[in-house]
Amino acid sequence: LDRVVEMMSQLYAQGSSPFDAGRARRATEKLLSEPEFGGVWLIDMDGRLAGYLVVLLGYSLEFGGRFGLLDELFVVEGCRGSGLGTEALAFADQQCHERGWQALRLEVAQENRRAISLYRRAGFQTHDRFPMTKWM
Prior knowledge:
Blueprint: H1 2-13, H2 21-33, E1 38-45, E2 48-60, E3 65-75, H3 84-99, E4 104-106, H4 113-121
Parallel strand pairs: 3-4
Antiparallel strand pairs: 1-2, 2-3
């Protein structure tokens, strides 16, 4: 868990979302205790921790019910470009299929061209809308 939270801090440092390590740890612990809502998986490259993946359960009438939300995908700097992201996305697809979820969605920063290219190659499509957030 410590290693995942450390990688989360690296992921969030690349964007504009605030990072609260305590909140991230509590949310991850809660998710791990309730696997019906998704999971957190470590990405291994030749025996070393190379990243992590988080896929969560979402529900949308537009998608006919349950769908997967690729909440986080992070590959450490020295391992990028090695195909791990492609493999992680295939694993996320597999998780959705096994759970009977209807779609897999994600958010990506518009300036993150490398990630957008990866997601498009994996079959993701853009929509003419953007996410909005209201913190509670």
